[in-house]
């Protein structure tokens, strides 16, 4: 661990957008999900939601640049559980869906607390999400195909969200609390120790300005 890595982590966490996320509903292909997570990391999303009734969700990890380890991927068994969670966070739910009520994705205000729902590669979003969504959105197409690959569409929409948020200054100061940033810093720098402390129900030790553990903060 170097001081430069610690400073990089601080810079990344200072840009994280706590009220912007995606819900990847039943994405089947690991390389698509991994590409979606990479785009999320690039625009400052730290938490992503997904559904898989069988539990774990596979991601593609063959490159050291994989964003998977930098994203908190929360897996749920039911779509309605994710929708309820998003409602509790007062997020607008935008579902990518070709419907009579769908609007151009550029017409949306992404500076509001927002979750973008991306459906699976074959069937798109579920009927439950389509009904629960506040708005259906589309990326307009002028070619022969009806839609983009799900990971490409995710990137297109998220970078519009980033553009709007940058223009409003939402990346200019930290939007995560100092406590959350400190805890996440320790998890990224010391993942094995963090897992052990979490399992034991113990708090994390303090770090100095270079990211080293302060010995006096360690409790037995």
Largest sheet: 7 strands, parallel
What is the succession of H and E elements? Answer: HEHEEHEEEHEHHH
Strand % is 5-15%
Could you name the ranges where pLDDT drops below 50 across 5 or more consecutive residues? none
- Give the helix/strand class: alpha/beta
Distance between the termini: 24 Å
Helix content: 25-40%
How much is the average pLDDT?
A: 90
Number of helices: 7
Based on DSSP secondary structure assignment, what is the total number of beta strands? 7
Based on CA atoms alone, the radius of gyration comes out at: 19 Å
Strand order of the largest sheet: 3-2-1-6-4-7-5
What best-fitting shape do the alpha-carbon axes yield?
elongated
Q: Would you write up a description of this structure?
A:
The protein has 7 helices and 7 strands. It has 220 residues and is α/β, with parallel strands linked by helices. It has a 7-stranded parallel sheet with strand order 3-2-1-6-4-7-5, sandwiched between helices. The longest helix has 18 residues, at 150-167. The protein starts with a helix and ends in a 20-residue tail after the last helix.
